Amino acid sequence: MRVNVFLLAVIVFFPMLGAAASYLTGRKDKALRDRVVGIVSLAEFAFLVILLLGVGRQKGVMDIPGVCGMGLHFATDGFRAVYGTIAAFMWMMTSVFSAEYFAHYRNRNRYYLFWLVTLGATEGIFFSADLYTTFVFFEVMSFASYVWVAQDEKEASLRAASTYLAVAVIGGLVMLMGLFLLYHQAGTLVIDDLYEACRGKNVYPAAACMFFGFAAKAGAFPLHIWLPKAHPVAPAPASALLSGILTKTGIFGILVISCKILLHDAKWGTFVLVIGTLTMVAGAVLALFSVDLKRTLACSSVSQIGFILVGVGMQGLLAEENALAVRGSLLHMVNHSLFKLVLFMVAGVVFMNVHKLNLNEIRGFGRHKPLLMAVYLMGALGIGGIPLFSGYVSKTLIHESIVEYTEAVENGALAPFVLGAGDMKIIEWLFLISGGLTVAYMCKLFFAVFVEKNEDPAVQKTYDSLNGHYMNPASTVALVVPAALFPLFGLLPHFTMDKIADMGQGFLGLAEETHSVAYFSFANLKGGLTSIAIGVLIYVLVVRTWMLKKEGGGSVYVNRWPQLLDIEELIYRPVLLTILPAVCGFFCMLLDRSVDFLAKILPLAGSVEAGFFDTISDSVIVFLRRTVYKDSPQPHELEEGNGLTHVLGRLVNKVVALLNLTFWRSHPNKKDYEHRFALAYESFKENTGIIGRSLSYGLILFCIGLCGTLIYLLVGLFR
Amino acid sequence: MNSSFLMVLAVFFPILCGLGILLAPQFQKRELLIKAEAVGLAVTAALAVLSLLGGDMQITFLRFGNDLKVYFRLDGLGRLFVVIISIVWVLSGVFSFEYMKHEKEEKRYFGFYLMVYGVLLALSYAGNLITFYVFYELMTLGSLPLVLHTKTREAIMAGLKYLFYSLFGAYLVLLGVYFLNRYAITLDFTPGGALDMARVSGHEGMLLVIVFLMILGFGVKAGMFPLHAWLPTAHPVAPAPASAVLSGLIVKAGILGVIRVVYYVVGAGFVRGTWVQTAWLVLALITVFMGSMLAYREKLMKKRLAYSTVSQASYIMLGLAFLQPEAMTGSLLHVVFHAFIKSCLFLSAGAIIYKTGKTNVDEMTGIGKQMPVTIWCYTFASLALIGIPPASGFISKWYLASGALASEMRVFSWLGPAVLLLSALLTAGYLLPLTIKGFLPGADFDYKSLTSAEPNRTMLVPLAVLAFLAVALGVFPNPLTSYIGQIIGTVL
């Protein structure tokens, strides 16, 4: 147990230390820095494997009391260990791939610094035992990963990054509001205690706020806007992680709400199911329309998140009977992380070589590159839900859970909540159609990149010339290893995927051992095959005809999505950046100026008033001056000096005369002191007159008087 | 030495030193001036810290009759303020050693700077309302030369605005003092209030008006709507280190005044549930939103930060207005955090002005490449102010929001946290663009013409220390929180 605790601390904080180490070494030596990054992510993966193998099913907790006020709390169980391991695995693989991908990038040091910080924060989220800790690491992750999106600093990147940051900040704040409300109602944020603490309380407002925040990160409709913007501009390894893992931290939060707070709550389940369905369909449609390789993958992520949310919603609806939904959504999370890892790295290989992503420009890049094509196919078949590949298993489980619920409602075994059996049928069909769309857009990418020839033969020639040396051995390993997992998982689901589901399902509130599902029975195959058939039809009928415009001899992929229908440009940006600030700012400015304005008005009013009194007082003064205060007539010019000066002066004159006769005979003093004293007296009189007439003198006298009065009063009062 | 004597020494030593600097012509020489200022700051800080080591102590040094006296008494709240004031004052002082090189008349600046330090310490030590009022006025007058330092027409007008607003506020307070002298048992600060209920009965309505006027009066310094307008005028014209202490500390003196009046003279119980509380909450909420909205629309960096202070100081007011222990914990935490954060932000603005002369946020593209350490400090402080965990602002907001919800005051209990978060969003909107543009200038940025503009150690060390505090106090807030808990335990 002690080892376990120590291991958790290492898993969360070791990457952060590694980040600092990589930054410091990177300032001196770039090659060494790359090695440090590789070692850190490898070591992190090793730690998690130890955790997974050694203590996977055990529960372990670690508290760091006092930090950040409420202390940080970590725990491990099967689900957390599985997801932590997947995260570390993805980081390790992308770090291997990054070395080649980033060879010519600027500011790599900055990138790696935030890359490793995000790894630590992501592990922190998955191992957090209370929502406070989750939130702390969630924010660190959001801000650190911002730098990835903006990495190349192009205008589009900066714009996409600002969208990403805005969604993250707004989502974070709304989530925080949810945490405030939850903490107020429940009195605790410890995930395992929440169910008991919230029972019987109306926690829906809190849950909705938290859902907003987590769904923003997960990319659920209508907060999915950052995904299609951020992924095409972010470096491919970063896109892989954004799509594969960072969105899953959002799902992690949604699972906490759905399985730890509102467990088996039909109302909540319906809400999540509706959001999930919208996300699933919207993402798939957007992906089909896209003509940009990474944008397609990004929209596909939105759609797959929708599949997972549908599974989460079904968990709530099916209540105690939700084994299929639990295992399905759990496995689809795992699968999607790995699919996107592989697919984005394939996109990364394309971009690394040709620096383009538009389907028309990269068309034909993959011709005669069997390895790349095989890797892509593994991912595409997996995500398309083709039997014998891993995606089929998870999608089938979710599909069967919908079917199970519909039947239960029809039989009357379960009381329907809002959505009746008919509505569920619609959702089932939307599910199958979205699955079909997945197949269709993966086909679109496959044929464009790997089968068709580029319209420009010269370009095709340069593409062909790359054959054999378009990626180095390290990158090859990074692509092939995860790709090999999909058929392995798909062929042997009972030995691989069921084991993962067994480990993880406890977290989702499913305790009992479940009987194994016959994945390849006809009933189960039917859904998958229907979906594939729809997909092929859509590809042939829609993509090949409507979305592929014939031009001259050849054809180009055109984006049929109306430019105007961009929810971000159409609504979010204008409202948030222009309308609201303008309106609120105007009112605030009014408030701000109001007092200054008053301050200007009041003296004006005052001066009018004062002017009135002024005219009165003037006339009064003139009147007084003419009567009571009339100057006395100017007296005639007095002789200089006064009596005293004359007497003194004469006296001194006599003494001086006497001295002149006796001691000063040789140097007699001939000054007239009578006149001198008189002059001194005149100047003294003049000065005192000036002082006496001055205002200050009057004020000084006034003050002295006031002080005297005060002292008298105080002495009188307190004696 | 008698430790209560240390308080007097800590107050009057810097005042006398400052006077000496102002009067003695020898200090025209810069070297000597800086040395004297450094010694003055260091000795005062040492005295202030030493004065904290003794137990509760008091000293009276002027007495008019039995209950009118000017006296110092050190309590928990005072200790907290002494520590904050000393840290920020000394660090900003060190920063200005270098910064003031490009301003004239350093002698005057440093003289008054040292004097106001003493006055602020006196405010923290003040044991009753009379003493507080006396030093409050002194603070206004002493800090005025810092505002109109440049003596441009703009600066003088701003200084006058500052003066008039402050005096108006102070007179409202003075009016209150007269009334409280009649209705309170004593004007000494008594945790929990000291109203003489026998005398008050029948005059509650009038006394509430008086309390509201006093809150408004102190609210002038704290930049609370409707009397906040001096802040955005005075800050841009003052030298950056002066803005730092104006925003970081002098604004907090208004907060301290409100706490002293409401929690130590009138008593929270008297105000709770009355229209005064409601009005106070409404004004604080308006200010929080208005300040951050205007900051968001402002382009001039220092003015933007000033509006931000308007908003943030009202976070504190909001927490106080809930009259609830947790919210007040949040308030006092925010007093501490905001002092460090905002002075850090103003000092980084100062460093940018000093090295590049840029004052407008839009001109600062690529600034992070020129002065990385400065902008990193700015960024950490910004994240702390927005309230991104684990940086400090998050902790205070957490307490503010839980306090608001726990207060159970119908609308306000959820509106308070909602406005706080909205304002946090705007805070992110007005602080982060500088970081983003500074570090991510765009792919077409001309790296060739880039010259390093990092300021020297004298400026960087204060910045780094403040930024470190802004983050570290968020990671390890518990000693501070429990200390504040003790203070609040006595008043609520």
Explain how this protein is built.
The complex is a heterodimer of chains A (719) and B (492). Chain A has 719 residues and is mostly helical. Among the domains of chain A are: 562-608; 645-718, no CATH class. Helix content of chain A is 75%, strand content 3%. In chain A, helix 3 runs antiparallel to helix 4, helix 10 (236-261) runs parallel beside helix 12 and helix 23 packs antiparallel against helix 24. The two termini of chain A are 77 Å apart. Chain B has a domain at 285-492. Chain B has helices at 3-23, 30-53, 76-99, 106-125, 129-147, 153-183, 197-200, 204-221, 230-237, 240-266, 268-271, 275-297, 301-321, 325-356, 367-370, 372-386, 392-407, 410-439, 457-475, 478-491, and strands at 58-64, 68-73. The longest helix of chain B has 32 residues, at 325-356. Classes of the chains: A mainly alpha (719), B mainly alpha (492). The interface between A and B is large, with 45 and 52 residues.
List keywords for this structure.
heterodimer, A: about 725 residues, mainly alpha, two-stranded antiparallel sheet, elongated, B: about 500 residues, two-stranded antiparallel ribbon, globular
